Amino acid sequence: MSKEIVDMRKEEIINACEKLYENNSFKDITIKSIGEKTTFSRTSIYNYFQTKEEIFLALLKREYERWIEDLNVIYEQNQEMTKEVFADKLANTVTKRKNLLKLLSMNMYDMEENSRMEELIDFKKAYGDAIKTLKKCVDKFFEKISEEEREEFVCLFFPLMYGIYPYAEVTERQLQAMKISDVPYKALSIYDIAYKGIIRLLN
After folding, report:
1. How confident is the model at residue 83 (pLDDT cuts 50, 70, 90)?
2. Tell me: the pLDDT tens digits for 34-43?
3. Cβ count near 127 (within 10 Å)
4. What is residue 53's predicted lDDT score, i.e. its pLDDT?
5. What's 77-140 look like in SS3?
6. From CA 175, how far away is CA 173, in angstroms rounded?
7. Which long-range contacts (CB under 8 A, 24 or more apart) does 24-29 make?
């Protein structure tokens, strides 16, 4: 089977997983349910991915690659920016990548532990490229702050991303429990959290 066909089949599997993830939780999605959304049999999926977690890891890798494309647009189309403009543009790229945030906050351990090493390495390359691309942007637009401060921004921004989705996307059940438990909660969007966090980190 040619590499082109293999890549097309993998993409179809990843697309099916992404579609299911819109309305289903990670734990409720199975190889069988993914197979039902593809044009080939469930058993054929094992020719490309050995576990459900590998499929989700491939989806997360693709999300990082798409985010990198957006970061490169910021880098290439701007010569200089204030902290506020940069925060706005970066927050907008994060807002577009809801699946990236959702996967980061909920399923990282499962995906990485239950994937073959070659799949994990392939994913880590995309993750590393995302770090390098964000660092490239920060270096270009904030050369007046120290190298240590720029590195610190990048190191702290990624943990920030892990916490955005569960705070911004709160279910009615969670809201009810917080209300009964007298837990204070202020509704913030993905953009709000990202923007405010970026400004804080840059300051």
Report:
1. very high
2. 999 998 877 8
3. 13
4. 96
5. HCCCCCHHHHHHHHHHHHHHCHHHHHHHHHCHHHHHHCCCHHHHHHHHHHHHHHHHHHHHHHHH
6. 5
7. 26/56, 26/106, 26/107, 26/110
Our CA dihedral for 52, 54, 55, 60, rounded to 10 degrees, sits at: 130
Q: DSSP 3-state assignment of 177?
A: helix
Whether 70 and 89 have beta carbons less than 8 Å apart is answered as: no
Six-digit token string for 137: 């942007």
Question: What is the distance between the alpha carbons of residues 49 and 43, in angstroms, rounded to a whole number?
Answer: 10
- Scanning the structure block, which residue is given the tokens 């990548």? 97
DSSP 37: T
- Measured CA to CA, the distance from residue 83 to residue 203 in angstroms comes to 9
What count of residues does the chain have? 203
Domains of the chain: 1-48 (1.10.10), 60-202 (1.10.357.10)
Q: Which residues of 154-182 are buried (b: 16+ CB within 10 A; e: fewer)?
A: beebeebbeebbeebeeeeeeeeeeeeee
Query: Which structure tokens are listed for 58?
Result: 């491939």
